[in-house]
Here is the input.
Amino acid sequence: MPKKRKSGGRSKGHGTGRSGYLTCDFCGRRMPADKIKKVTFWYSPIDYQLKKELIKQGSRVPRYKVTKYVCIRCAVHRGIIKIRAEKDRKKEQVTA
Ligand SMILES: [Zn+2]
Here is the structure.
């Protein structure tokens, strides 16, 4: 049977064995740890306009690193990953 993706949508190597499970932070779906997408971004609790003003005046605004685990369905829905053409699918995906 032909394979849709070379890796089967997972990052686990052949002969690696079982990987653990993680839960999607958006929908709560349980997924293998090597298949789930890890997204890290900076979050600031201060309003954007106010933050801009504060930085302009030379103050330091706190920001926090937030890491989320996102399942494939949620990642596609939120534009974190995109559906690719058949010939592009065979290549390794570079996540921004
Ligand atoms: Zn999800």
Remarks:
- Residues 21-82 form a domain with the first zn-finger domain of poly(adp-ribose) polymerase-1 fold (CATH 3.30.1740.20).
